[in-house]
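ping. complex inputs:
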Amino acid sequence: MLNTLSKLKDSLEKRNTENVLRSLKHKKEGVDFYSNDYLGMAQNVPFQEIVLQEINQQPQLLKGATGSRLISGNSNFTMEVEAFIANKHMVESALLLPSAYLANLALLSAIPQRGDIVLMDECIHRSVRDGLRLSNAKSLKFKHNDLEHLEKLLKEANGNRFIAVESLYSMEGDFAPLEKLAVLAEKYNAALIVDEAHAFGVFGYGIVAQKNLHKKVFATIVTYGKALGMHGAAILGNQTMICYLVNFSSPVIYTTGSNDLHAMSIKKGYHFLENNSILNQNLQENISEFRKSNLPTLSDPQSPIQIVPMANVSSAKRAQQHLENKGFLTFAAVAPTVKEGEERLRICLHSFNSKEEIDQLTKIIKEFI
Ligand SMILES: Cc1ncc(COP(=O)(O)O)c(C=O)c1O
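pong. complex structure:
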């Protein structure tokens, strides 16, 4: 045991020396430019009242699931909500999971088989990579948003091909060329998997639905932990694929189901977003305000995630600390979250940020870089 602990200590010490040690910190006070609560739903009082009213009317929503969904933990209501979600996204079926991390694990660990190949964007989220670690399929990375590189790999690939991308990249703030990816997927008979964690809610039900690509995408993952301000996720796609997951995917089978409160809150969240498009308008205005600053960024002009490149780990960390001292909360993304040498400051814009806050933030960053 002493040996094991000393190995763990060595790894932590190495991280500490490299100035990239992670730790859980108390919640900070300051203006939020770092959370994924793009539309302020996590703190939206009228929405909370809607949920509370439902709980008061139907306290049985709070009942625990009591087991795996395949034993005692399923409910008619959750299945109704899944049908509601599938309908909203114009797909045959939806499967609810406790988070998008688990949704990606569930999908990628179970669907690609031995002999198959998964081509993933080099910037894809860790949950996709972790899912593939549990799979027998081979995986290769293609250069970020580089269709030529992807096509080369598709040509060389044997076996069933999969392409895995995010519609809006979480650490880049740029979009995948989804229409072109769908054309390539069709040309090479590849199954396209799109993680819409950061696009859902900010761009309607996500970019797949917005661009009418739902019939060309094999599986879409949406999370309810970001723009919807809650937690949970759904895998969307064809009925056979969902049925396969229910039969073969460990993260679906070997875990306790969620209670009906979760499904109800998600359903109310969809309705709330439909009736409150002002939140999206405010967000887009704030993104435009940020972009007026002309700070250097490769992020898309419409993205709620705006990335400002930093020279190295210490300048990224110093920028974050400097902003925090001035009352602005941002995130210094350093390795292993991003590649070494690609350190950056990640700014998340929200519907609730004020123009003054955004102007002050950009002024301070400009002084600093
Ligand atoms: C692209 C992407 N996929 C999946 C996830 C996981 O989402 P969740 O927080 O619902 O587990 C995240 C969150 O960090 C993400 O950025």
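Residues 99-101, 104, 125, 127, 166, 170, 195, 197-198, 223, 225, 233 surround pyridoxal-5'-phosphate (CB under 6 Å).
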